[in-house]
Amino acid sequence: MKHAPPHRWADLAAGRVSEAERAALEAHAEECAACADLRTRVAGVRAVLGRLRDAPPPALNWDVLGTRLYWTASSEMRRRERERDGRRGRVRRAIPFALAGLVVGSGVAAVVIAARRPAAPAPPALVAPALPAPAPEPSAPAPRPAPLGAVVTLLAGDVSIGGARATEATSLRAGDVVRTGRGRIAVQFGERSGLVVEPDSRVDLEAWDSANVVLRVAGAVTVEVDRRQPGQRFAVLAGARAVEVRGTVFRVAEHGGDVDLAVTRGKVAVVGDGDSLEVAAPARLALAASASLGSILPRPLLSEADKQLADGMRAPIVPGWRSADELRSATAMLSIAAPARAAVAVDGRPVGIGAFRLRTLPGRHLVETGGLARWVDVEAGAAETVIFGDRTRSERPGQVDDQLLTHRVAVGQCAVGLRNKEPGFTGEMTVEIGVNADGSVDFVAPVRPFADRAVESCLLDVIRDRFTFPKGTKATVQKVIRF
Amino acid sequence: MLSAMSRDSRPPLDAPEGLIQASEAELIRRCVAGERPAFEQFYRDHRRSVAGNLYRVLGDRAELDDLVQEVFVIAFRGMVRFRGDAKLSTWLYRICVNVALGRLRSRSRRAPALPYAELDDAGDGGANAPDKQLERREELVQVYRALERLAPKKRIVFILHEIQGLDIKEIAEIVQAPLVTVRTRLHYARKEFYRIVAAEGR
């Protein structure tokens, strides 16, 4: 007999060959050492494949994943609802998307620079030639642009807007001045548009409406802008330069006339002094006040510091925007108190440092800092506080142990049938038990299924129907039940 | 539902079909209506089977949570159109396969890194000794190294048949291909896989 192809040894191991062929293969393996070796190896591989079938799935962070998923799914759902709304939905969407130019100037320093350089004031470069805004119809009267709705999505420390202390209910109007001092504020102004004013910054809202947004910034601001609609202007001024943007994420920092521009998504065109330069993400451009655009090239965001900067360039944006008022009423505020300089993540995403208030969708959220984590449930229009520092552990795991002890007979009864068939039978099953704050059992789910479906079902019923808990914290407990 | 994808215990096949379908239909209706408890129930019921399927096909846990999320997002998007023509588990399985295929294709476009370094010891069967564990890990690596060299479509049918234990008809339903195509694909996949295994041992 010739050497058999390797897969025939697998067929032999699986019993997929005729009796005659089996005898021939085995006889050949007796004579051919190489084939005998291959036969052993193939059998080993088949055993590995069998073990893979029974392997439990890897443990993921299910709760975090579920929360993220819910955010995504609920956002999708709202989008579908809006699509069903038809014309009304389109009008509604037009308002938040109605984003205008963003002008980043240089505060007092810019005024000084502009005064020194009368030949190169910012306004002529407001609109970059590469991306002109569509011209209005000559015969139609120009509609008055609607004010741009804005919702505070993150507030840390003292921030003033228009001379008053900012709160989560504060809105923005043209003419307002935002001063952050040591604080930080994030504002959402569309479904996917938002900005973050960083500490020690001042932002003058020279224009803030659906057709035009002009920000004059001293300090640093990160902006996330959705796609431009026809007739809208997206422009950023930095000192004597103009930056024209489409849908993009970028950060502009201005200090003493020097501008540091970082772009993590999309493309911007920097225009000034009769020259222009395109900066495509991911790139960074450092412009000294005296530098000419023609002599500088953007560099890619490669260094560790660049990556950290890019990671931090996220404006907290809540899905489901229809209007500022609707978003305010449909969302909730989380007041988070973490130790100073401690990074805080909500639902797995880094959102802030230390103590701050964050706007979020109603529902269950995981707040983490350092090695600590808290679950918090919030309802629309409500506010919840999460304080870190007390290392209290949930009481629920201990209570589950108590309940298992109390109902050990009922648990043991579940395996009686199996024991009758197989004396001395023992087994174990891992379950997840969700306990609500009011003590009711939220859910019981097997982590690893038990081979006998009747036993599994019986155990789950015992837990669901007999286990009782006092009021306390909402928690999910994973437990191995042996019987 | 964890075992929905394995041969020995698949609720849609073992349990009274009408009951399962009725409860599934109700769950889907509530999910489409945007009820969060229903959403959570669906996620809880299927998350482990989805993760397990993706894990077995891909052989590593890199980006596994993102891929699980992708499967569920696609599922939630598609629920509106889910008419119950296929079993829910088959439908979800199909999404897993498509997501895994996408991942395999993007992986094959990149440098041939070996992404299965984080393989868990699957079903140790009491073999807890470090040397035994090492040996088993090496065997797993060998298997996934061979799988890595199969074309994505062949790899999928091979895994569905040889690891998940599905028959040709079930595979055809999942990959939405004719029976003959699946049979041919599986034949060549097995031939190629064991040829690679044989060559590696020389």
Task: Describe the 3D structure.
The complex is a heterodimer of chains A (483) and B (202). With 483 residues, chain A is an alpha+beta fold. Chain A contains twelve helices and 26 strands. Chain A has helices at residues 6-14, 19-31, 33-54, 62-85, 87-97, 107-116, 304-312, 324-330, 396-406, 408-413, 416-421, 453-466; strands at 151-156, 160-161, 164-165, 177-179, 184-190, 193-197, 202-208, 213-225, 235-238, 241-245, 248-255, 258-265, 267-272, 275-280, 283-287, 299-300, 332-337, 343-346, 349-353, 355-360, 363-369, 372-378, 383-387, 428-435, 441-446, 475-482. In chain A, the strands form four sheets. Chain A has a 15-stranded mixed sheet that branches. In chain A, strands 9-10-13-14 form a four-stranded antiparallel sheet, with no helix packed on it. In chain A, strands 19-18-21-22 form a four-stranded antiparallel sheet, with helices on one face. In chain A, helix 4 (62-85) crosses helix 5. The longest helix of chain A has 24 residues, at 62-85. Chain A is flat and about 90 Å long. Mean pLDDT of chain A is 76; it is low at 87-139. Chain B is mostly helical and 202 residues long. In chain B, 70% of the residues lie in helices and 0% in strands. Chain B starts with 10 loop residues before the first helix and ends with a helix. Mean pLDDT of chain B is 75; it is low at 1-20 and 109-127. Classes of the chains: A alpha+beta (483), B mainly alpha (202). The interface between A and B is large, with 45 and 54 residues.
